[in-house]
Amino acid sequence: MGTVITPQLVDTVDTFTGVRSYSSGGTRHLTTCQVERWGLRMECPTPEDPFSDGEVTWLLPDLGLRLTHLRSRSRHGRPTPSTLTAVRVQRDSRSWRTTDLLLGLAVPGGTTARIVRSEEFAAAVAGRVLRPGDADLALRTVHRTLEEISHFRHDLNAWLNHLDIFDVWPPL
User: Fold this and answer.
1) How distant, in Å, are the alpha carbons of 4, 90, 115 from that of 1?
2) What does the pLDDT average to over 142-167?
3) Per-residue pLDDT reduced to its tens digit, 104-126
4) Are 10 and 97 within 8 A, CB to CB?
5) For residue 149, which of 141, 158, 140 has the smallest C-alpha distance?
6) Could you give the 3-state DSSP secondary structure of residue 140?
7) What pTM was estimated for this model as a whole?
8) DSSP 51-98
9) Nearest 10 degrees: CA dihedral of 50, 104, 39, 133?
10) Predicted local distance difference test score (pLDDT) of residue 77
């Protein structure tokens, strides 16, 4: 079975109302929507997900990255890896718009980060869903980030501290 080509995912966060709108037409009310000096911090519940209770997302526009962690519904559930996804971010005084570049890193913590979504990325490039400039940006962003994180033994907090982001990841 071949890889299904997904349309490019675009979402917009209205920082005044705390609503995240998806290109699919869905919306989600954020419990946290806070502009920080390093980017945008968001949290929301995920009632439709049987395994996770909530999602924490940080947008790091200067790095072209979205950092995401799903909180397990069960205290005894296996922790999911954090994901760094290459994104293009456009922002103004009211909203932040991200375009998912369909390539990222899974960073499990304690073990080596790995590139994820490469089949979806390749299918999007082949199907011309992803423009060549965006594909190049995604590859450069993910490989640069993987190299940087490897210098910190794949420890996201150490890497974030190096970037002068001293908030703990993932937040409790």
Assistant:
1) 9, 36, 22
2) 95
3) 999 987 789 999 999 999 999 99
4) yes
5) 158
6) helix
7) 0.91
8) SEEEEEEEEETTTTEEEEEEEESSTTSPPPPEEEEEEEEEE-SSEEEE
9) -130
10) 66
